[in-house]
Amino acid sequence: MAEKSFGARCVEALERRGPLCVGIDPHDDSLREWGLSVDVAGAERFCMTLVEALADEVAVLKPQSAFFERFGSAGIALLERVVQAARQAGALVLLDVKRGDIGSTVRAYAQAYLDPSSPLAVDAVTVSPFLGVGSLRPMFEMAEEHGGGVFVLALTSNAEGITVQRARRKDGRTVAQSIIDEVRTLNEEATGLGSMGLVIGATVGDCRSQSMPPGRQKTYGITHTGISSGETAHDLSGLNGPILVPGMGAQGGKPSDLRRVLGSATKYAIPSYSREIASQGPSVTALRAAATTAVEACREAIRA
User: Where do the Orotidine 5'-phosphate decarboxylase domain residues begin and end (predicted)?
Assistant: First the structure.
């Protein structure tokens, strides 16, 4: 087992470097903005510049795997270099892969990303729970064994997610609430911050779901103290795990949204910016300045 859990390393990084995650997303528009070719050579220049600018200052870097995979084996090789360089510079690397499968397949994904012997080993990954949170157990077990972290999708900002995530179960909870509750149980035995977290978009509003049927609000315990009396929201109390909050900056999320969305769980937030910071490149100085501005705004919002 690793000397320190991901939760412990996450707390240290956020305290030392501030509450900020920056995405490394070499998509076409960003490459063109920098005057780079839309190929693996352009992607390499883009990614390694971001690593040079930010890996020794930002708490968490989040490469999006799809933007590397599209270049085939050369893209995967680049992803390996990005991961290794970022970790060597002291940043935690959260690989945005959103994997979700069953049995030996999800175990293989766990080995790929969370086994230290893998060339793609990272500090944490994002996963999709919509084959059932229980299907992700190999991910959780591998993370626990090697001191990794797992961020489970719960409430995403895309309009299509509403039909699944906010659908009601027979017990009255939304699907998202059941995911939150299961992740909460995974952190119950943790000393300090747990290593199993959630993904909740910055632009989901205040996590408000459709009104609970009369008489069920107390039964299912999902009244959130962070909003006005009589309204119901997803209950994040007692999560004791980190919450990745994507969609900050160019996608519409603002630091002031953190407390509105997460309520008392704001203390667990890892706000994630991508395009807004990347757009300041290729100047290393400008990239660092943008990250500093973002982290200070988020720190102030979280402390408020």
Answer: 19-290
With beta carbons less than 8 A apart as the criterion, state whether 34 and 286 touch: no
User: Tokens 């063109």 appear where?
Assistant: 32
Whether 263 and 225 have beta carbons less than 8 Å apart is answered as yes
The answer to whether 98 is a known catalytic residue is yes
Which residue in 4, 98, 218, 267 is the catalytic one? 98
Report the percent of the chain where pLDDT is more than 70. 90
Q: Which domains does the chain have, with CATH numbers?
A: 6-303 (3.20.20.70)
| Nearby residues of 202 by Cβ (< 8 Å), 6 or more positions away | 157, 245, 246, 247, 248, 251, 252, 253, 254, 257, 258, 261, 271
β-bridge pairing 243-248 and 196-200: parallel
User: Which pair of structure tokens corresponds to residue 147?
Assistant: 């001191």
pLDDT digits (tens, 9 = 90+) for 33-57: 999 999 999 999 999 999 999 999 9
pLDDT for residue 159:
85
* C-alpha count within 13 angstroms, C-beta hemisphere, residue 75: 16
Question: Rounded to whole angstroms, how far apart are CA atoms 149 and 140?
Answer: 8
